[in-house]
Amino acid sequence: MATQAAAPLMQREVFARRSRRAGLWRVARSKPIGAIAALICILLVLVAIAADVIAPQAADAVDPLKNPRLQAPSLSHPFGTDNLFRDMYSRTLIGSRISLGIGFTSVFFGTIIGTTLGMVAGYFRGWVDLVVSRAIEVVLGFPPLVLAVFLTAIFLTSKGFSWKGFFILSLTIGIIIAPATARIVRGSVLSVRNLQYVEAAESVGNSPLRIMFRHVLPNVVAPIIVIASIQIGNAILAEASLSFLGLGISDDSHPSWGKMLQDTRQQWHLAWWTAFVPGAAISIAVLSFNLFGDGLRDVLDPRLRQSS
Amino acid sequence: MAQYLAKRFLASLLVLFLISILVFIAVRAIPGDVCKIVLNTQDVDQQQCDAVREELGLDEPVAKQYVTYMGGVLTGDWGQALISKRAVWGEIKTRIPLTVELTLLSTGFALLLALPIGIISAVKQDSITDYVLRILSIGWLSLPSFWVGTMLIVFPAKWWGYAPPVGYVDIWEDPLKNLEQLYLPAFSLGLALSASLARVTRSAMLEVLRQDYIRTARAKGLRDRVVVIKHGLKNAMIPVVTLFGLQVGVLFGGTVVLEGIFSLPGLGFLTFQAVTVKDYTQVQGVVLFFAAVLVSINLLVDVSYAWFDPRIRYA
Fold it and tell me: Which of A84, A108, A149, B14 is most deeply packed, by most CB within 10 A?
């Protein structure tokens, strides 16, 4: 009896799982570029997580015997060595940690700030909307990188790597990307807000907070995911620019790709790979996240295609 | 129309006012003591410190400091740099032409690349050409401009021994040498901008080319080129101009890095220098200036909608 009842249930579950997998495959087939980009993104994240295991040397291993100065890429040093007797391959792998780590964390902060502001503005409208919109305009009134340079110069006083610095830097980049999220969320909330189910939820006596989280948020989640995935690339670029200017949190044992470019600036004309490798790493990461975000947008929210 | 303009103008003023307060407060929120930066030592006695603070006007209430500062800014006295002791506005003023030229050249490059690409992609929608152009443009959208700049320094030097001339010359002094110094950074900056502009041009053109008046223009027997450029492009410009307004800020930010790489003494380089030596009055001045320019450009962009689309009259 029990098995009889269980069988169709299990079967249904198998079907569901199978169709979900088939759906994923269908999406991947229709957006091959996005799918490949997604794979590269996953690979990059895995590399960042396992960096200290994969990397043949430590990031700050200065070893004149094993790593002759400024050696061109070869079998023992796939990415060459830099001016301080360090293996660039190891540094590039380990550098992905700060680059991607800051990238993800700042998008996380930016998305939370932006979503909250956008939702509050779109839901309450009126003067709340006015205040939030002015705040967004104030942030957009600065050139993004100039604002980032300004904020990090003031608030990121510690030199080198620290978790506090990591937090401040992510928050800074998060503030810069939040306006874009806020605008999109506000627009989506405005269009959802007047639908009947929100009215119904209101008339039953739900609190605004509950309505926002239970009824409005789930319906604007697609554009939020899309904009967040597109912003990861921008955040990685911002971190690279800042650490290239010497304002990041990276130091010798915690390299980032931007800092690696900065460290070898005087050697670029002697050793092209010192300029090429870290920049290529940044470009590949940004490109993959951009293409992934693009594909995701086409799948999740075709309406957004026109807007950017 | 006049009412709309007045409203937009006032809103921009309000935003600028808020920005100035924000910058002013942020600079005063700097942890650490100003007098240590000014006197350039770690051990300062209280008396020296008080003297410095008084000289900088930091002993006054913050509101009064703000009013004094903004009064100065509006009359052309932006104060004195903490460390170099030069006039803040003087430093900014001498660097404006270079950064303006760099920004204009980058925009020129960007439009030169973006408009043809966007138009061709739209006219030949879903063809191989369209596909290739789209992939290419998203590809170079992801290249950091400072890396493109780096490569443009490293590889020509390696292969052909070519390097742009060092030591900046004013355009009025020697236009050719000046352009030779600027075209590489301008190209690096323009490339990323051109990618996003091309994407928007494409989608806006697609939208416009489906309109009835395009069919009418074709039915009148106008040549394809005239239809696309004169009837199509002008009407597709609104989203392009909007995006451009949003991207000018990115261009300005790019100058901070690129002027550093190419050793060009512009506003971006000034920002970077001032931040590095912690010259906060200079930082405050440049950041405020950048924001003022950006807000003004966005105001202009809004106003220009009416020109591109006479239907928009903002009653």
Answer: A149
